C-alpha cells in the first residue's frame, strides 16, 4: 500500500456521503463550533488591537514621551537644562511645563481638573495638542495674560464658550488683611481642544507666564517635557539621561505615568483571548464524540485494514487525519469569516445602527463613534495554529481506541 493511504482514508471518512446521518450531524455541529470560535476570536482580538491603538494615539497625543523634574522644588535654569538634554542623539525636542490640580468654576458647574502652563511654540514640538484644537488656537495663550485653552468636554460641563470667563482656584494661599484665602483668578476661554479621550474632561492649558503667577514662581518651572525619536525607546533614553543629569533631577518616561493603563489593556486582551479560546477548545473536543462514533461505525473497516497488514499506528493516523480534516475545514472557514468581520466591523456596525435606528456607540459617552479594528495577521496565525493543536490533541484518544480494536473479535460476528 502507498505510504499516504492512512491520510487518504481519513479524508474519505470525513467527507464521505456514505456515513451515518447522526454521525454526520455531530460532525457538522463540531465544525460549526470551530468556525464560530475561530471567527469570534479573530474579530475580538482585532477590535481590542484597535482599541489599544486608539487609546495609545489619543492619550499619548497629550502625554509626552518623558519628563525631567526636580526632586525638591522647581527647575530655575530650565533653558540651560533643555539645551543639555537636547544634545542627546535620541532627543527630538524639549519644552517646559508647570502643572497642578485646580478647581474650575463656570456658568453652570464646578469641576476639578489639571491646569498646565506651557510655551505654545515649544509645546508643538513635544505633543500634538495644537493639532487637536477644535476652536480658537493654542497661540492665543500668549496674546494676553490669563487666557486658557481647555478640553471641549470640560467646557460643556462648565457651560462656557469662547470669550467666556472661568474662575480657577489653585492650591495656593493668599494672605490678606481679612485672613488667609485660597488663591483664585478669572481666566478667559480662548480655545478648546478635543482628542476624544478622558483628558477632554479635565485638562486645561495656560501660558508659562500665567502659570508662574498662579502656580509657581517667576523664572521657575516644574520640569521639562521630552520627546524622543521613538515612543517605545523612551524608557531607555530617559534612563540614560538620568545618569547624565545633575543630582536632584529625576527622569521619567510615559510607561511610568501611563504604563499601568496600557498594561491593563494588554492583560484584558490576554484574558479575553483565553476565554474565547475555551470556545475553540469546546468545539475541538466535540471532535472526540464525532470520532468515537466514527470508530464504532467503522469497526469492520478497521478489522479489514488490520488483516491486510495495517499496523496500529497506521490506524491511529487514519483517525487523527479524520479529526484534523474536520478541524482544518472549520478553522479555514472560521479564519475567513473572522478576517472578513474584522476588516468590515465598522461598516457592519453602521449598518446595524441604521437598521435598528439606534446609536450603539455614543461619542459623548465612549469617545468613539464606531468600533476600531486592527487586524494583525500574526494573531490570525497564532489562533489557527492553537486551534489546530487543540484539535490534534482531541483526536488522539479516539484514534488510540481505534487502534485497540481486535480484528478477530470484530470479524467473528460479521
Describe this entry's structure for a reader.
With 414 residues, the protein is of the alpha+beta class. The chain has 2 domains: 5-58 and 261-412, no CATH class; 66-254, no CATH class. It is 54% helix and 20% strand. It has 15 helices and 10 strands. It has helices spanning 5-15, 21-59, 78-86, 120-126, 152-158, 208-214, 234-244, 254-257, 259-297, 299-307, 312-343, 345-356, 363-366, 377-403, 407-412; strands at residues 66-70, 91-105, 110-118, 133-136, 147-151, 165-176, 179-193, 203-207, 223-228, 249-253. A 6-stranded mixed β-barrel has the order 2-3-8-5-7-6, surrounded by 4 helices. Helix 2 crosses helix 11 and helix 2 (21-59) runs antiparallel to helix 14. The model has no long low-confidence stretch (mean pLDDT 80).
Q: Any idea what the radius of gyration is?
A: 32 Å
Count of folded domains: 2
SSE pattern, N- to C-terminal: HHEHEEHEEHEEEHEHEHHHHHHHH
What's the rounded overall pLDDT mean?
Answer: 80
Envelope shape: elongated
User: How is the biggest beta sheet arranged?
Assistant: 6 strands, mixed, barrel
The proportion of residues in beta strands is 15-25%
Query: In percent, how helical is the residue content?
Result: 40-55%
Sheet/helix structural class? alpha+beta
Q: What is the strand tally?
A: 10
Outline the low-pLDDT stretches.
none
Amino acid at each position: 500500500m502507498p505510504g499516504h493511504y492512512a491520510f487518504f482514508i481519513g479524508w474519505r471518512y470525513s467527507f464521505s456521503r456514505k456515513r451515518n446521518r447522526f454521525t454526520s450531524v455531530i460532525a457538522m455541529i463540531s465544525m460549526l463550533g470551530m468556525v464560530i470560535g475561530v471567527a469570534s476570536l479573530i474579530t475580538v482580538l482585532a477590535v481590542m488591537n484597535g482599541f489599544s491603538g486608539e487609546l495609545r494615539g489619543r492619550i499619548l497625543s497629550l502625554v509626552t514621551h518623558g519628563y525631567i523634574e526636580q526632586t525638591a522644588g522647581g527647575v530655575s535654569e530650565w533653558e540651560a537644562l533643555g539645551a543639555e538634554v537636547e544634545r542627546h542623539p535620541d532627543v527630538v525636542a524639549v519644552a517646559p511645563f508647570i502643572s497642578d490640580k485646580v478647581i474650575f468654576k463656570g456658568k453652570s458647574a464646578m469641576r476639578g481638573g489639571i491646569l498646565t502652563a506651557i510655551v505654545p511654540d515649544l509645546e508643538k514640538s513635544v505633543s500634538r495638542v495644537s493639532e487637536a484644537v477644535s476652536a480658537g488656537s493654542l497661540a492665543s495663550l500668549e496674546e494676553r495674560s490669563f487666557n486658557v485653552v481647555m478640553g471641549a468636554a470640560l467646557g460643556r460641563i462648565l457651560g462656557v464658550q469662547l470669550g467666556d470667563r472661568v474662575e480657577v482656584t489653585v492650591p495656593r494661599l493668599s494672605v490678606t488683611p481679612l485672613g488667609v484665602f485660597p488663591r483664585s483668578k478669572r481666566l478667559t476661554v480662548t480655545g478648546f481642544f478635543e482628542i476624544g479621550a478622558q483628558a477632554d474632561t479635565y485638562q486645561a492649558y495656560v501660558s508659562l507666564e500665567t502659570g508662574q503667577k498662579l502656580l509657581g514662581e517667576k523664572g521657575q518651572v516644574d520640569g521639562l517635557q521630552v520627546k524622543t525619536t521613538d515612543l517605545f525607546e523612551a524608557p531607555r533614553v530617559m534612563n540614560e539621561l538620568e545618569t547624565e543629569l545633575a543630582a536632584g533631577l529625576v527622569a521619567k518616561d510615559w510607561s511610568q505615568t501611563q504604563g499601568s493603563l496600557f498594561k491593563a489593556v494588554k492583560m484584558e486582551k490576554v484574558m479575553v483571548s483565553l476565554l474565547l479560546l475555551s470556545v475553540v477548545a469546546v468545539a475541538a473536543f466535540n471532535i472526540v464524540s464525532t470520532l468515537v462514533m466514527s470508530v464504532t461505525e467503522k469497526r469492520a473497516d478497521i478489522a479489514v485494514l488490520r488483516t491486510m497488514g495495517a499496523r496500529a499506528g497506521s490506524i491511529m493516523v487514519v483517525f487523527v487525519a479524520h479529526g484534523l480534516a474536520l478541524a482544518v475545514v472549520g478553522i479555514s472557514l472560521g479564519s475567513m469569516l473572522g478576517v472578513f468581520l474584522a476588516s468590515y466591523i465598522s461598516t457592519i456596525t453602521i449598518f446595524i445602527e441604521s437598521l435598528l435606528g439606534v446609536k450603539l456607540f455614543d461619542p459623548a459617552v465612549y469617545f468613539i463613534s464606531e468600533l476600531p479594528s486592527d487586524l494583525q495577521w500574526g494573531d490570525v496565525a497564532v489562533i489557527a495554529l492553537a486551534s489546530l493543536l487543540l484539535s490534534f490533541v482531541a483526536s488522539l484518544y479516539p484514534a488510540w481506541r481505534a487502534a485497540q480494536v481486535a480484528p478477530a473479535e470484530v470479524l467473528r460476528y460479521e
